[in-house]
């Protein structure tokens, strides 16, 4: 058991999976000698060589497209988009092929690949480096979309994603890459894809979040407990698609009040689907309109204003109070 | 010297072996036995007649849109014939002749054109990829497959088909660049059929040849007379041998012509002259091979008549089989299949709801 950052935990997952299975390959821009610009793949090239840890030309479509071919061949490529904002160069390969090849070939060619991408705001990056476009992928049948919220679940989810027989878009919140450390077991640990978890128990309010926003949501929950005497249940989605609605459904039926938090844009954002599920499955249990605390529908501003763009604790608390007071 | 010419490693050659009149350059004729030559001819003719039948079926409204192969049979058969069974064939959407050569049942091709996903099913042991519609997007897959072959030391070569229009797409350039960088065992087989729907080859690129586009990526390129099955075979065989022996990828540009429509949704009279088509009909790859085989007494007019009859029966049988299959494939709930190795709960729920109405 070691105290690891998310970056180190992801590195551990890659290292252990590469050790365990020689069909696991890593490819992307600067993933080899440089160890990835965030150091997620650090040291892998020394351990496994350049045939398995491939520094590629700057060509996202070919990184994903070649990975599709490798996966169909029987390998398990873990490819990296340096930032999610550059994954659009590969969008056609993701949508038209990674997501469809199993379907198109009627099950002949599965596509067991992982597309890792740092995403989200909060690290003072340049334009195109801070978006949260998980719905682009979550809206695509054939894909799975996973977003960890801390070192331990990042490691366990990445292992599951690598072993998954289908393509997984693995979105890593940059804000938590090095924000805190957590005990991560040395021994293998996995978390099944498609399962959310309850992070904080409470009977007064249900808060649904994932990724970096989970931590602000937890802080808000503590503030609500302290200041308002309200106990909020907090659910971490972990997998955005397929969406596990069982936990928040159960919780919403118990609390009757729900807040959904994400840093993706508001309109057609993940909260839209979550609210729809609540309406379908928990409508008669709801005691107040469901609150969405999200980024507004604006292009992520340059970093001087990015903290104002992202939901913060105050806005989450305010959203929760609206849900509680209604 | 401040300014000097950089020596580049390759030149672009053009290869023709079998002339338009059926005459051959004996020195260049590849070593092919008589049976193989006759198989070339038979499969080319089958692809042509199959194409014609599909066109009729489409006009009758019995199948949907498809992309005819007529005119490009030599480019496909000459190249596909160089592959071993364990080698990989990655098609775009016009590779009917290559698919037939590789053993895809004609009925499956009909089924595909009739709008049934099952027509794209790839048998468990076949090293063929399904049809890829988005132009050039299949080329990177071929590089990934070849990387796999190289990584596993399997000795398998991966041949990918695409057209002249595809050479304008980013995926073409990215894929060739990857192949050059990693020395993958690929053959990039461009069928330059002169027309990307309505846009002629000259408008597609200012480059003199498409073959030269490999050079920028450290990949040799060769241009061949794509209506000359012997030249296509000779050039592709060389490329396959290079790939198999670890020397990396080759770009083969087959200069050919689409005698028919781009797809059945298109009217070529809007953008090209019938005279041009007539000129190319004189270079018909099937006639050319037939003349050659006749000159070698491998084929007679009578043989061709028998062959036509046999092929007509085969094409009819393919349609009948496909029709029968279509009757069996009645359950639209099958649309929920094959999205994931294991259908996730939300999709199961949707299937149930959908089934219940």
Notable characteristics:
heterodimer, A: 326 residues, alpha/beta, Rossmann fold, seven-stranded mixed sheet, five-stranded mixed sheet, 14 strands, 20% strand, globular, B: 357 residues, six-stranded parallel sheet, 43% helix
Largest sheet of chain B: 6 strands, parallel
Count the beta strands of chain A. Answer: 14
Low-confidence segments of chain B, given as residue ranges, are none
How many β-strand runs of chain B? 8
Determine the CATH topology of chain B.
Rossmann fold
The Rg value of chain A, from CA coordinates, equals 19 Å
CATH architecture of the largest domain in chain A: 3-Layer(aba) Sandwich
Protein architecture, described:
The complex is a heterodimer of chains A (326) and B (357). Helices cover 37% and strands 20% of the residues of chain A. With 326 residues, chain A is of the alpha/beta class. In chain A, helix 8 (213-228) packs across helix 12 (313-325) and helix 9 packs across helix 10 (270-282). Chain B has 357 residues and is of the alpha/beta class. Chain B has a single domain (13-356), classed as 3-Layer(aba) Sandwich (Rossmann fold). Chain B has helices at residues 34-59, 73-80, 96-101, 106-113, 139-151, 170-182, 201-204, 229-244, 274-281, 285-295, 301-328, 345-356, and strands spanning 13-15, 88-90, 158-163, 186-192, 195-196, 199-200, 221-225, 250-255. In chain B, a hairpin with a 2-residue loop joins strand 5 (195-196) and strand 6. In chain B, helix 1 (34-59) packs antiparallel against helix 10 (285-295), helix 1 (34-59) crosses helix 11 and helix 2 runs parallel beside helix 8. The longest helix of chain B has 28 residues, at 301-328. At the A-B interface, helix 3, helix 4 and helix 5 of A face helix 5, helix 6 and helix 12 of B.
């Amino acid at each position: 058991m070691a105290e690891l950052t998310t970056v180190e935990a992801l590195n551990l997952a890659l290292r252990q999976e590469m050790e365990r299975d020689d069909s696991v390959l890593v490819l992307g821009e600067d993933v080899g000698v440089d160890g990835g610009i965030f150091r997620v793949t650090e040291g892998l090239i020394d351990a496994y060589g350049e045939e398995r840890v491939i520094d590629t030309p700057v060509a996202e479509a070919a990184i994903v497209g070649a990975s599709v071919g490798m996966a169909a061949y029987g390998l398990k490529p873990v490819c990296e988009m340096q930032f999610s904002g550059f994954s659009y160069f590969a969008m056609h390969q993701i949508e038209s092929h990674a997501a469809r090849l199993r379907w198109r070939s009627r099950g002949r060619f599965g596509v067991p690949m992982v597309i890792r991408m740092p995403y989200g705001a909060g690290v003072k990056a340049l334009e195109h480096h801070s978006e949260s476009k998980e719905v682009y992928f979550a809206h695509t049948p054939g894909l799975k979309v996973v977003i960890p919220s801390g070192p331990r679940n990042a490691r366990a989810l990445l292992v599951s994603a690598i072993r998954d027989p289908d393509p997984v878009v693995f979105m890593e919140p940059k804000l938590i890459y090095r924000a805190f450390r957590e005990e991560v077991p040395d021994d293998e640990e996995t978390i099944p894809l498609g399962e959310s978890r309850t992070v904080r128990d409470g009977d007064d309010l249900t808060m649904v979040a994932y990724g970096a926003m989970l931590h602000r949501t937890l802080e808000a929950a503590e503030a609500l407990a302290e200041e308002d005497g309200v106990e909020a249940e907090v659910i971490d989605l972990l997998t955005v698609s397929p969406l596990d609605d069982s936990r928040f459904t159960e919780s919403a039926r118990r609390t009757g009040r729900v807040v959904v938090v994400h840093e993706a844009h508001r309109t057609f954002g993940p909260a839209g689907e979550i609210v729809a599920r609540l309406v379908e499955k928990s409508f008669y249990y709801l005691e107040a309109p469901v609150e969405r605390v999200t980024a507004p529908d604006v292009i992520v501003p340059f970093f001087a204003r990015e903290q104002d763009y992202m939901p913060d604790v105050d806005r989450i608390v305010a959203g929760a109070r609206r849900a509680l007071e209604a | 010297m401040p300014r000097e010419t950089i020596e580049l490693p390759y030149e672009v050659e053009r290869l023709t072996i079998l002339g338009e009149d059926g005459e051959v350059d004996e020195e260049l004729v590849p070593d092919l036995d008589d049976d193989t030559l006759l198989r070339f001819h038979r499969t080319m003719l089958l692809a042509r007649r199959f194409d014609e039948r599909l066109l009729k079926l489409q006009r009758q409204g019995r199948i949907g849109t498809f992309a005819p192969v007529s005119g490009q049979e030599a480019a496909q058969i000459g190249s596909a014939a160089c592959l071993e069974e364990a080698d990989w064939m990655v098609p775009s959407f016009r590779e009917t002749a290559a698919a037939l050569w590789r053993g895809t049942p004609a009925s499956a091709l009909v089924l595909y054109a009739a709008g049934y996903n099952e027509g794209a099913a790839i048998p468990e042991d076949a090293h063929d990829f399904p049809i890829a519609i988005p132009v050039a997007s299949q080329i990177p897959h071929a590089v990934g497959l070849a990387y796999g072959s190289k990584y596993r030391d399997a000795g398998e070569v991966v041949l990918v088909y695409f057209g002249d229009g595809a050479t304008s797409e980013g995926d073409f350039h990215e894929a060739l660049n990857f192949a050059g960088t990693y020395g993958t065992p690929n053959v990039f087989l461009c069928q330059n059929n002169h027309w990307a729907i309505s846009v002629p080859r000259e408008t597609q690129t200012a480059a003199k040849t498409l073959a030269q586009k490999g050079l920028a990526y450290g990949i040799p390129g060769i241009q061949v007379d794509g209506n000359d099955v012997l030249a296509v075979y000779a050039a592709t065989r060389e490329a396959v041998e290079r790939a198999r022996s670890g020397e990396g990828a080759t770009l083969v540009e087959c200069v050919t012509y689409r005698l028919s429509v781009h797809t059945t949704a298109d009217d070529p009279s809007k953008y090209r002259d019938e005279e041009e088509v007539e000129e190319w009909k004189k270079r018909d790859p099937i006639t050319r091979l037939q003349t050659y085989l006749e000159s070698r007494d491998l084929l007679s007019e009578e043989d061709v008549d028998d062959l036509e009859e046999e092929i007509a029966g085969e094409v009819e049988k393919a349609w009948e089989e496909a029709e029968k299959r279509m009757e069996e494939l009645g359950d639209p709930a099958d649309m929920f299949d094959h999205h994931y190795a294991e259908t996730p709960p939300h999709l199961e729920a949707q299937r149930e709801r959908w089934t219940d109405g």
